[in-house]
Amino acid sequence: MYKRERMYKLNFLQYPKPCLVSIDESMSLNVLSPNESVLSLKQKLKERFGFAYSRTFSFSSDGFLALMLQLKGKILVSLGESHAIVEAATKAQAHGCDIKFIALTKEGKLNYNELCECEYAFVSSYIMDTFVKVDLDKVKEKTKALIISNITATLQKERCDIALLDAYKLTGYATSSLMLHNIEFEEQNFGNIDVIAMQLILQGIEHFVTNSTYKEAFTNELNEVFQDNIYYFVKPEDTLEYVLHFGLKDIKARQMIRTLALDEIFVTNGEGCSLGLGQPSRILQAMQYSETQSRWALSFNFSQQLEHNDIKTIAKTMAKKYRQIKALMQ
């Protein structure tokens, strides 16, 4: 039986290689000891990004709702944020919070014209799903807000005042996530600190590697093999340097994802769409694309070292699978 010699993993942000879980009893929490190992771990994470405080929390709509209910004043929320944040903001509105949603443009960028002065802004330095870059300097200038940002895909503090690290995207485990900040919240109960999550997140940070050297070559190769059948929802130059987002016209991304996996080529179709089986991209629909068009979307994120022959092999395999899928649809 034929077996491909190499596996191509082009979705490490969505499906990271799980960290090895290794933790000893020194990391257990004990009210009768100084918990030096835990405090040292917290300090390493704070120093890595230059923040004064850290806390573990649930990266879920309920976790973000709890945070929003603590914030006093007007809150801006980009529609380019994770679904959990947008959902939490909708719930917070129902609880009386002053929430304003900031739309995305047709080009996939944050609509800076909708920004206004506020106390807090949930705006990351990139849009989820498409990974289009966001100018946080402009956000800060227009809003004067404390900026709350998911920095999982960049590990860069930039202009954010509260940084969020999504544990699953870094570790492969759905543990608690991490919040780093300089403002004082109610102190987290020591017994509620998820030490295992912090340990895994630190390991994930240490092993986080991206590769931006062949994005242009990949784009050129895909353009050559697909020609008019490839569609760019966002410009490749507008995304993070190691991310390529596009669509293949008239087929659902999950069909391509499944058939490529049989050839050990692993891609994804969005920030939170497990194995291509989830809903069409909420981000693309916020950009005014139809549900059908939103189902075309595919995303590559590069970490693995690839040679030009690898890129040609992947592109040609995708083109072959695309033709097969289109033929079966007729």
- Specify the CATH architecture of the largest domain: 3-Layer(aba) Sandwich
Tell me the distance between the termini.
30 Å
Write out the strand line-up for the largest beta sheet, numbering strands in chain order. Answer: 2-8-7-6-5-3-4
Class by alpha and beta content: alpha/beta
Question: How many extended strands?
Answer: 12
Low-pLDDT sequence parts: 273-277
Could you say what the CATH topology of the largest domain is called?
Answer: Aspartate Aminotransferase, domain 2
| Relative helix content | 25-40%
SSE run: EHEHEHEEHEEHEHHEEHEHHEH
User: Which strand-content bin applies to the residues?
Assistant: 5-15%
Gross geometry: globular
Rounded mean pLDDT is 90
Rg over alpha carbons = 21 Å
Concise summary:
It is built from 11 helices and 12 strands.
